[in-house]
Amino acid sequence: MTGWRKIGFSKLIQEWSNAAHPIAIKALCESDDPLRCGGTWAVGLDLLPNDPQGAVGGVPLPWEVLGLQPQPLHRAQLSTVYPGYPQPSAQETEAAYGFRLRRSSAHLDGLLAVGPEKRRMVKEPHAWILGLPLTASDASPLVVWEGSHLVMQAALSRAFAEHAPETWGDVDITEAYQAARAEVFRTCNRLELPGVPGEAVVLHRHLIHGVAPWAEGASAPPEGRIVAYFRPLMSSVAAWVTAP
What we know:
This protein is α+β, with helices and mostly antiparallel strands. It has one domain (4-202, 212-242). It has helices spanning 11-30, 63-66, 94-103, 148-160, 174-187, 237-242, and strands spanning 4-7, 41-42, 77-81, 111-114, 119-122, 128-133, 142-145, 190-193, 200-204, 209-211, 225-230. The chain is globular and about 50 Å long.
């Protein structure tokens, strides 16, 4: 009912994280993608050179510990946060920056801002979200709104009800999404989920989540707070909306 599940410490997860750590640092250092949020966040999309089974550096991803059905994976995102996150930047409006501070940039994965008016449409129907910490840090933890997946599922089902399922990927759900997210803020518990290498967290695909600002006194190693994320795609937007 919470929409998230934490996997406690496992030697097998730790072995994977330890193997991924130096490879992740190298990939981040070699990346040409500019830092965002005033130089305090590396998005790191598709940056970890894991294989389609999730193995990295010769170490397999321990599916049996994670409790997930094995499936082909993309290269993991390496979401990396540095001291002072977030900072204002020319690439982000004042309102967007304020939303990062007040609401931890709460969002639903898979919704992309389409066109010059940035209308929200489901373009990446993820099956689930798996986060694997690569550094020991209490800084800028993952934030979830417990039970928000239930609010979002209901709202999205209503938003798509008058459209043919094969068109759902092109349906503008901006207003429905924003209204449902506002309901989430009113009714759902906000929870911070820090983690360490050897642990993992699985999120329901409809769960509202974000990243907390870097708190005073928080610590991380010199390479920053790094979390590897996997988000495999489902077969269709219709499946993404209607599956349990």
